[in-house]
Design a protein that fits this description.
Elements lengths: L1 H14 L6 H10 L7 H23 L7 H21 L7 H27 L6 H32 L4 H23 L3
Helix pairs in contact: 1-6, 2-4, 2-6, 2-7, 3-5, 3-6, 4-5, 4-7
Protein name: HupE/UreJ family protein
Organism: Sphingobacterium olei
Pfam family, one: HupE_UreJ_2
Amino acid sequence: MQDFWIYFQLGWQHILDLNGYDHILFVLVLCCSYALKDWKRILWLVTAFTVGHSLTLTLAVFHIVKVNVVWIEFLIPITILFTALANIFRSNKVGNASLLYTMTLVFGLVHGLGFSNYLRSLLGKEANIVWPLLSFNIGLEFGQLIIVFVVIVLSTIMISLFKVKKRDWSFFLSSAVVGISFMMALDRFPI
């Protein structure tokens, strides 16, 4: 059980690490268009993302999938950029839910590959990696839920207390993330 808590803690700390803020940005733009009343939709989106990154993380840790890390590090900010742009150009309506869940799942696949080298280095030569892998993934999900909670509380304060329109708030956050993720992509462009 002690191993569970070690890898669980590593998972949520990895997500909330401000030095690797790309995951924070993705979760932020994923849920900034929603309010507290949309909690079920947010939970489904975050779960789709978790399923995607857990799948590729598992496949990579078991050496079933191997990718060029340089391309994955470039594609991660592209997924953030695309999600932020989708928020900006989407009308006030939420849009096609199944398309959004599919996009989130696919982007989760990319992000999971980004975690794989980190987790592989943590696991080293452990004989049984299933339990640490599961613990780490649960920690990642917990960290994501913390980000979602902070974004939703902040959004609720801005919309309810300061009377900012939900669409304007989403546009503001998404526009900021477009700029950040564009610069990240340029910095990581594989030459």
